[in-house]
Amino acid sequence: MKILVPVKRVIDYNVKPRVKADGTGVDLANVKMSMNPFDEIAVEEAIRLKEKGVATEVIAVSVGPAKAQETLRTALAMGADRAILVQTDDEVEPLAVAKILKAIADEEQPGLVILGKQAIDDDSNQTGQMLAALLGRPQGTFASEVTVEGDSVIVKREVDGGLETVKLALPAIVTTDLRLNEPRYASLPNIMKAKSKPLATKAPADYGVDTAPRVKTLKVSEPPVRVAGVKVADVDALVAKIKELGIS
Ligand code: AMP
């Protein structure tokens, strides 16, 4: 069974994003970029399934600029077998990514596609669900445990107030939540080895997908600056303060 793992190059989670002066988006000039953290978890899960003998090949895919090659090399250094870069400098929305992934899944016929539950730059939480719909395949989203049993996959899902366990017929789509696993660090020898693993470069047009945006961002703004707190002497003063500020 092949596993397809889509990985997105995003602003590093440790970087505090700065909004561009004209409010059109986040300033990405000279900012550290990394693999979306949920996608690292997806790569780790796919590699573990290969190590268990469940999967035979792990294919990482990224849709993005030439620099997204670095993200794919990270996936290869972690243990993915080969990679596909669908190169574009456009900002690609989840629907277009899902259409490209559908075309790749039609070609590669993976038993599982494991995506992150969301990309931390756009916070869309849409691509996996759209891909499942386009492929007409079952989906197990927000996975905190994934077990392949014969021709099914059992997914423990993180839902409000607890865990839900679902059984999906393969081929299926899974999206990862934070608690699924702790991704490994790539060792230096594996980083070196990854340089010679196959990486194919394609374009969205190769899959017949038009990446023109359907959504227009009207404005991006910084969150309001937090005002300093005050110390109160006792509970009565606290209640008075709450009333004064109209907090309910
Ligand atoms: P989103 O729907 O944008 O929050 O993204 C959810 C997941 O879809 C991500 O965690 C990735 O696994 C995948 N994904 C989204 N955009 C891309 C992209 N440009 N290239 C590869 N994978 C992507």
From TrEMBL:
Q: How does it assemble?
A: Heterodimer of an alpha and a beta subunit.
- Cross-referenced InterPro entries: ET-Flavoprotein_bsu_CS, ETF_a/b_N, ETF_b, ETF_beta_N, Rossmann-like_a/b/a_fold
Record key words, sorted: Electron transport, Transport
From what superkingdom does this record's organism come?
A: Bacteria
| MF annotations from Gene Ontology | electron transfer activity
Q: Note the SMART domains from the entry.
A: ETF (SM00893)
What are the residue boundaries of the Electron transfer flavoprotein alpha/beta-subunit N-terminal domain, all occurrences included? 23-211
Example of a GO biological process term: carboxylic acid catabolic process
Tell me the Pfam families matching this sequence: ETF
Species assigned in the record: Caenibius tardaugens NBRC 16725
Belongs to which family?
Answer: Belongs to the ETF beta-subunit/FixA family.
Function text:
The electron transfer flavoprotein serves as a specific electron acceptor for other dehydrogenases. It transfers the electrons to the main respiratory chain via ETF-ubiquinone oxidoreductase (ETF dehydrogenase).
* Name assigned to this protein: Electron transfer flavoprotein subunit beta
Cofactor dependence is on:
AMP
